[in-house]
Amino acid sequence: MDPAQKTALRKSRVHLVNHLEMRHLYDYILKDELLTPIMVETIQAKECRPDQVRAFLDILPRRGPTAYNIFLKILTESGQNALANHIKQEYDRETGNASGLSELSLTPESSSDNEDMEVEGVEVFKGTSLITAVQETGSPVANLPDPQSIVSLTSQGSSASLGPGYTGNYEEEYRMESSPRGFLLIINNRTFRGDLEERVGTDVDCANLKCLFLSLGFGVELRTNLTAEEIIANLEVLSRHEQLPSVDCLVVAILTHGSDDYLYGVDEMFVDVNHLYEKLSATQCPALIHKPKFFIVNACRGDAEDKGILATPSIGRCSVGVDVNKIPDTAQAVRRIANMQDFLIAYSTIPRHVSWRHKTEGSFFVQGFVKVFKEWASTMDVVSMLVKVNHHVSRIDEYAGIQIPSPQVMLTKKWYLNPPNAAYSS
């Protein structure tokens, strides 16, 4: 779907939410293969008509170059011509093109066109040591020290490693003395199979996060270009990994396209983020009970922008053309997940908003995250550092793409990372 078509749909969103009757579309959608049966079932599961429309409009821009044309045809065939004309008028305003519906190509995009494409990163852990299985990205890491010059992951953590902030008072602070301190799994999706554009710049984020957490005394493992199913499978295997009982925390960083409560695999199928969190909950991952579990989610959560449209070509959204979907408030999202004690989730942006990424310097969020944690990790607790990240990212406005991250805190104690090298931030 081209940018003008996506813009026309976005500008028509309120009108469609108010007037579109989804129940008249489903048979046509399946006949023309605009969506898969699973996608239709997901939309139909929404409780009310407006929510069904929002869910549909969120998926539609990702259904290939012919999706817009097929949608307009379906509107006409289902007797909702006025809505088709409304969208077409928005498109004409955007492009100045007065062509009519009769000129549209109506060939559906097959959902199986890309089944034979190879995908990197399909291997799951299979008992591999999380400490040593670190894959290099080859991307430069600016302004970060060599991790091996800072800390050896085989060094023993002990009370002698106490940093200026960490006191070892387990009643008020999470224990952070294991060696390694914890594990970091990075899922880095860059190249997608269909309509989603390549996430240029994400390898910089991946390399910077890897170097940062190695410097903090973590074991790090990378997974690249995972499908939705592979993302879930890696979390399931991780939740049962034999080394989890020996570490004091777990961090999962997911760098991909997203919208609403969904993250996208490279196959453009989506995963509900709450489903991923459940994989590390107390019931499904008892090895992490009473230990901090930290998700770093660098993805869009909608299509709204805080200030204008970026004109600088080196800046891009972390997702492309995603329409705003109804976002449950934070409390509602948490109530759907059982046993979420000791979780910390750092979203790169607030609900309904885009997340900005520089194509050579990486995303605004990861830039701020690495800068703050590099400077303050040995003296400040994690939640306080995330507040500093908010401040730093909110001030990156030189490209007119203002952004504010959104931490979600379910910790029950102070969490200091207590890096083995107390001089890390000096």
UniProtKB/TrEMBL annotation:
Any one Gene Ontology BP term: apoptotic process
InterPro entries: CARD, Caspase-like_dom_sf, DEATH-like_dom_sf, Pept_C14, Pept_C14_caspase, Pept_C14_p10, Pept_C14_p20, Pept_C14A
Residue ranges, annotated region (Disordered): 94-117
Transport in keyword set: no
Domain CARD: 1-90
Keywords from the UniProt entry: Apoptosis, Hydrolase, Protease, Thiol protease, Zymogen
Domain Caspase family p20: 180-304
Xref: Pfam families: CARD, Peptidase_C14
Low complexity bias locations: 99-111
Active site: 257, 300
Signal peptide: none
GO molecular function: cysteine-type endopeptidase activity
Domain Caspase family p10, residue spans: 333-419
Stated family: Belongs to the peptidase C14A family.
Protein name: Caspase-2
Source organism of this protein record: Dreissena polymorpha
Lineage: Eukaryota, Metazoa, Spiralia, Lophotrochozoa, Mollusca
